[in-house]
Amino acid sequence: MGCDLCGKEGPVLAALIEGSRLNVCSGCGKHGKILARPTFSQKKTSAPAKIETAETIVSDSAERIRKAREKSGTTQAEFALKINEKESVIQKLENGSLTPSIPLARKLEKLLRITLVEIEKEEAAEKPSTKAGPLTIGDLIKIKK
Ligand SMILES: [Zn+2]
């Protein structure tokens, strides 16, 4: 392993230099076209603990939409125009035969100032701590003995 051009030991990159593909050090790579960055496979990036979140539409979205829309004094047709949807979509949303998609719900939320999307957090299954409490110095001494 080492640079094909100067012989320098160390990480190399694949580079296209004067028409040939060579493994060169970063210094020599500047003279050509870098094809690939060296891969550091040994370095594993530990992904942060993921908390799965699921966005769901509230179960009574139809009622919320209808009430808020009526309160705003707009008809279904006017409201449909406002949010750039067909009137039939509004009808379905309000009679519960259609559940809005998350983006549509977000739009409705903004316009009607209501809540339609709920975030459900599925927390990573955390094992309940079996520790009785923090160890005191006294406990540590007992353990040592
Ligand atoms: Zn080199």
Q: Count of DSSP helices?
A: 6
Q: How are helices and strands ordered from N to C?
A: EEHEEHHHHEH
**What is the helical fraction, as a range of percent?**
25-40%
Average pLDDT rating = 84
Spell out the CATH superfamily of the largest domain.
lambda repressor-like DNA-binding domains
The CATH C-level name of the largest domain is Mainly Alpha
Spatial order of the strands in the main sheet? 2-1-3
Domains, number: 2
Characterize the biggest β-sheet.
3 strands, antiparallel
Count of distinct strands: 5
CATH topology of the largest domain: 434 Repressor (Amino-terminal Domain)
Hetero compounds: zinc ion
Unreliable spans are none
Classification by helices and strands: alpha+beta
Q: What fraction strand?
A: 15-25%
Radius of gyration, rounded? 31 Å
What is the straight-line distance between the termini? 53 Å
The CATH architecture designation of the largest domain is Orthogonal Bundle
Shape: flat
What attributes characterize this protein structure?
alpha+beta; 434 Repressor (Amino-terminal Domain); 2 domains; three-stranded antiparallel beta sheet; two-stranded antiparallel sheet; 6 helices; 34% helix; binds zinc ion
Secondary-structure topology with pairs:
Layout lengths: L12 E5 L2 E5 L1 H4 L3 E4 L15 E6 L3 H11 L4 H7 L4 H9 L6 H11 L4 E6 L14 H8 L1
Antiparallel strand pairs: 1-2, 1-3, 4-5
Helix pairs in contact: 2-4, 3-4
This protein binds zinc ion.
